[in-house]
Structures are given as C-alpha cells and as structure tokens.
Amino acid sequence: MSLTFEDRILLVEDRIARACERSGRSRDDVQIIAVTKYVSLDTTKAALAHCFRQLGENRWQDAQEKWEAITENTGSGTDDQPVWHFIGSLQSNKVKDVIGKFTYMHSLDRLSLAETIDKRAKQLGIVVPCFIQVNVSGEGTKQGLAPQELPLFVEQLARFKGITPIGLMTMAPYEAEPEQTRPVFKALRELRDEIQSSSEYGHTITHLSMGMSNDFDVAIEEGATWIRLGTILVGKEEE
C-alpha cells in the first residue's frame, strides 16, 4: 500500500526529530524545502495545503506553470504565498525569468552568473539571498566551486550589491549507505566556519543547504539548516 502525504510527513518529521536529538540540535534550526520538480501542480498545491511554504524547483520551464497558477490564486504578499527556491544550475540567459520570482538561489557558482543576477536584481530594486554551491565531492557530474576556490569567490562577491550570500550548498553523491555521505557534509560545515571567521560576509554566511531524501538525517547531524526533500516527502509522478 502506498503512503499518503500525511504518512510521509510523519515519517520525515520523525527522522528529523531523531537526527536533531542525536546531534543536540533544535528542530527549529532545520527548515524543509519541498522539492516539487517531479510532481504536478495539484501535488504542489497539496504541499502548500499541508503548510509547506518553502518550494524548490530546478528549471524555470518546469516551474512556470506552477508558479503562475499559484501566484495568480494566492496573490503576492499574502500569508499563504509560497517562498520559491531555485535549486538547479542556472544559465545566465534564464536569470531574467527566475530573479524576482524565486526568493532564494541555491546554485551560485561563478562570477559571470553573479554579475547577471546582480544586474537583474538592481533593475528590480531587490537584493537576492544566495547560497554558494560548492562541489565538495569533486564529482565531474556535479556543479559548483572547488573548495579551494571559495575564499576568493566570496571576496569577489563584495562588488555585487544586488546579492547577499547567506550560506553554502552542496550535493553529496548518492550512496546506498547514507553514512558514507558524512565527510561531504562535514567538509561543507567546516568551509562555512572558515568563511565566517575570515570573510567580511561572515555574519551573513550562516546557512547550510545540504541533504536530500536519501541522506538528510546525516546532513542534519552535520549542521544542515535547509534540507531539500522531494520523493520522500511529496512523492514522484511518472510523466
């Protein structure tokens, strides 16, 4: 028998609570992004109905229908308006479609993208909170800065007034045994701590966006403040 949405929420919350207890953290320190990229508009609305306001998408062409339908129904600035997170790799030519619609960017990984985001943000009169994506695992299939490139990159961001770096993001390799992802999450936390102690942005780079359906327990134990949950929370619908 397949699990209901309510069943999945209970299971996820139990695992979060246990991970927080093991690591001596407060449940309030961990926020869930409901990743809706593999589900329909109806399922996305169901997530909102269950009070998951933080929604994650990784491509504008997949998110557009959902964003437009939900925004039209709720209206900007209302209490039930979702907060959209762009969690995929962003091409510079798509910045105009995304900035102003998605509040948070989780994949800032190059200066050319920072420059384009900054330009668009200034046009809109906003400041975009961004996570810097770091390829901690070194996998060729993963996007992000190499860890050794991070300090200089953070320093160079100072000239972009339309951007505020608020944290670091990484994607761990998929492992059959999630415990094997721990070194990746630990390394990102240590990078965050180093940046906090050495950068003018130390007071803003506080968050860690890490952990997905397969490994979020370990990510929480290593300090994740945002976890990105798709299949385990909202399911996956075949096209």
List keywords for this structure.
single chain; 239 residues; alpha/beta; TIM Barrel; 40% helix
- The average pLDDT value, as a whole number, equals 93
- Spatial separation of the terminal alpha carbons: 21 Å
Q: Work out the helicity level.
A: 25-40%
* Structural class by sheet pairing and helices: alpha/beta
Low-pLDDT windows of residues: none
Name the beta content range. Answer: 15-25%
Assigned CATH superfamily: Alanine racemase
Strand order of the largest sheet: 7-6-5-4-3-2-1-8
- The total of beta strands comes to 8
CATH class label: Alpha Beta
Structure characterization notes:
- The chain has a single domain (5-234), classed as Alpha-Beta Barrel (TIM Barrel), CATH 3.20.20.10.
- The chain is built from 9 helices and 8 strands.
- It has helices at residues 5-23, 41-49, 60-74, 95-98, 111-124, 150-156, 182-198, 216-221, 231-234; strands at residues 31-35, 54-57, 83-86, 104-108, 128-133, 163-169, 207-209, 226-229.
- The protein has an 8-stranded parallel β-sheet with strand order 7-6-5-4-3-2-1-8.
- The protein starts with a helix and ends in a 5-residue tail after the last helix.
Short description:
Helix content is 40%, strand content 16%. It is an alpha/beta fold.
